[in-house]
Design goal:
By secondary structure, the protein is α/β, with parallel strands linked by helices. It is about 40% helix and about 15% strand. The protein contains 11 helices and 8 strands. The chain has an 8-stranded mixed β-sheet with strand order 1-2-4-3-5-6-7-8, with helices on both faces.
Length: about 270
């Protein structure tokens, strides 16, 4: 009996150690296969640009000019910028310029994704807009998709935007893990934290939270908790029946309308 119990403990411990060591493979899902096509082939009017990170990586990005206000888009944890081309096209039709970029390790970029690395990547995108294009910070909106919502919220604590759009956000990454693996000590195991709600409590810019009522990846209750944590004026848009990866949460009218409304609210603050 003691031997059997010891074996179970050993197997469980080995499994937890393996989970700890390989957890980033469970968080980040770069799209592999076909190389990224030129911007204008996928998104008419867009151009290819390169972002240089503080630690020396060159990241691929697309810039689509359409208006004086620019939306900096931070992707979720899967796919590359080409998947977000319909979003950029829909925003451009509303008169908003858009910067799409890929994190390190995504879209053919060098490097390996980590929480610290993604923070450097989004800062490279911000520098490109402000320093290279001369976009005033008061004309920049941050759009974060799921994991990207945490990325832009952390950026906003240092470089506040005109407005913040958080699509399917979570309070912190561990809370998503607990929802899916309630039998595991997720908080103790995770190296990546992404404490979105904690950062949002320190940001006073206009914020909009958009989520699907049928999201099976990020529980809607977590997105509502994010909205409750906002220190600034917040709007909440629930898309009825929408799951995490549904088209309604990529380019649907409720989502695009929410970004347009946020741009108008942000313009009223200047």
């Amino acid at each position: 009996m003691l031997i059997g119990t010891g074996l179970v403990v050993a197997v469980l411990a080995a499994g937890l150690i393996g989970l700890w060591a390989g957890q980033r493979a469970l968080i980040y899902f770069p799209q592999t296969g076909s190389p990224i096509r030129p911007a204008d082939d996928v998104l008419p009017g867009a151009r290819d640009v390169t972002l240089r990170t503080a630690d020396g990586l060159d990241l691929g990005a697309w810039f689509l000019p359409a208006g004086v206000t620019t939306v900096l888009v931070a992707n979720g944890n899967a796919g590359d910028r080409s998947v977000r081309a319909p979003l950029a096209a829909a925003l451009a039709a509303r008169g908003l310029s858009v910067l799409l970029f890929d994190y390190r390790g995504y879209g053919g970029n060098p490097g390996t994704p980590t929480e610290e690395g993604l923070a450097l990547d989004v800062r490279a995108a911000h520098r490109y807009l402000v320093d290279d294009l001369g976009v005033p910070p008061g004309r920049i909106l941050y759009y974060g998709e799921s994991l990207g919502a945490a990325v832009v919220t952390e950026l906003a604590t240092e470089h506040p935007p005109a407005g913040l759009l958080l699509r399917s956000p979570f309070t912190e990454l561990a809370d998503v893990g607990r929802a899916h693996y309630p039998f595991l000590p997720v908080g103790a195991l995770l190296r990546e934290r992404y404490p979105l709600a904690e950062g949002l409590r320190r940001i006073s810019v206009p914020t909009t939270v958009v989520y699907g009522s049928a999201d099976r990846m990020v529980p809607p209750a977590l997105s509502r908790a994010v909205a409750a944590a906002a220190a600034g004026p917040v709007e909440v848009v629930e898309v009825p029946g929408a799951d995490h990866n549904d088209l309604a949460l990529l380019r649907g009218p409720e989502l695009i309308g929410a970004v347009g409304a946020l741009a108008e609210r942000a313009s009223g603050r200047r």
